[in-house]
Amino acid sequence: MKFGIVINEGPYTHQASDSALQFTKSALAKGHEIFRVFFYHDGVNNGTSLGVPPQDDRNLPNQWSELAEKHNLDLVVCVAAAQRRGMLDEDEMKRHGKEANNLVKGFRISGLGQLIEAGIQADRLVTFGD
Amino acid sequence: MSTLHLVNKSPFERNSLDACLRLAAKGSAVLLFEDGVIGAMQNTKHSDAINTAMSDHKFYVLGPDIKARGLNDDNVIDGINVIDYDGFVDLTTEHKTVQSWL
Amino acid sequence: MEDEGVVKKFCYMNRKAPYGTIYALESLEVVLIAAAFDQDISLVFADDGVYQLTNNQDTDGIGMKNFSKTYTALGDYDIKKIYVEKESLEERGLTADDLQALKYEDEDDDWAEKDSLFVVGREELSKIIDEQDVVLSF
């Protein structure tokens, strides 16, 4: 079965990203396909490359990045939500004349249409939030 | 196929369990996870709400979230099924829509 | 546009008041984009979500943008199924008169202006939600 996953909260403050990660791993292990993981609201902060959590804590952005690399996942950060919250890839950095970018490898920035498309294409859309 | 409702908040903090039970169609299923597992415990002031709703809905609770909070599967309301993440995934495949009560 | 042929029933579920959190505004942003996809769209406002639709919002004193007028433009996006839970209004001491009038122009009826906001009771709303293919919650 084809899943779309939506994550509406950032890492650490809420359990949403952790729960979504466990769910996604489980779904993959069962042979399901993850059509897309869409990050919205503060969820875009899961894509930051600048977090430095304590050594004994999990690094959620890196965990998503590694899972994406292993399973060829499509991790999409909403552009409108990302711009508000200071999440930029290299293109966005140049376009807005900023000095830095901070998107972890494996994530990409795109529009809200990608969320709707996930709703259309996936057999099930599962939302994790507050 | 009916809907699977996801409730991730404690009934002591939010009204999401209440809203879910109020609007979930008869025959749909409810999974309590994250802080939502608090609503699955026996002898709380919210336990009766689930006991009453049990005739209309199947209830599930995510075991890993129970353990994480120092709670015990033995104290889960009778009739609620304790499942793990594999069971969570299976439940989503067995229902046509998954609705989160955020 | 994309995915021609597939029409799913999408429901946008709003249960939070505006301004205190960003969910109402960013839900509206999703709905405006979704309108371009030719899917079957319903909006639901229940619990504190009913406050998103109130008349006379004035944000001058809080330094935030008042986005309430955008709801009245939803008809232009062909969004014409907006459901408000009657009991949620009643529990909050509100009536339909406290909400903005939401309308759309019916192209099949000589562009007659029609209501797009429906105050529905709990049981009817429950049925409407149960018929959906995709529910997005905010």
Mean pLDDT of chain B: 97
- Poorly predicted ranges of chain C: none
Q: What is the CATH class name of chain C?
A: Alpha Beta
The CATH topology assignment of chain B is Hypothetical Protein Ychn, Chain: A
How many helices of chain C? The count is 4
Q: How many structural domains in the coordinates of chain C?
A: 1
Give the helix tally of chain B. Answer: 4
Mean pLDDT of chain C: 95
Q: What is the CATH architecture term of chain B? A: 3-Layer(aba) Sandwich
Structural class of chain C: alpha/beta
- Cα distance, first to last residue of chain B? 22 Å
Runs of chain B with pLDDT <50, length 5+? none
CATH topology assignment of chain C: Hypothetical Protein Ychn, Chain: A
DSSP E strands of chain C, number: 7
Please give the CATH architecture of chain C.
Answer: 3-Layer(aba) Sandwich
| Backbone CA Rg of chain C | 15 Å
Helix content of chain B: 25-40%
Write the H/E string of chain C, N to C: EHEHEHEEEHE
Which range best describes the helical content of chain C: under 10%, 10-25%, 25-40%, 40-55%, 55-70% or over 70%? 10-25%
Helix-strand blueprint:
The complex is a heterotrimer of chains A (130), B (102) and C (138).
Chain A: E1 2-7, H1 16-29, E2 33-39, H2 60-71, E3 75-78, H3 79-85, H4 90-95, E4 107-110, H5 113-121, E5 124-128
Parallel strand pairs in A: 1-2, 1-5, 2-3, 3-4
Chain B: E1 3-7, H1 16-23, E2 29-32, H2 47-53, E3 58-62, H3 63-68, E4 81-83, H4 85-94, E5 97-100
Parallel strand pairs in B: 1-2, 1-5, 2-3, 3-4
Chain C: E1 9-14, H1 23-34, E2 40-45, H2 69-72, E3 82-85, H3 86-91, E4 103-106, E5 112-115, E6 117-120, H4 122-130, E7 134-137
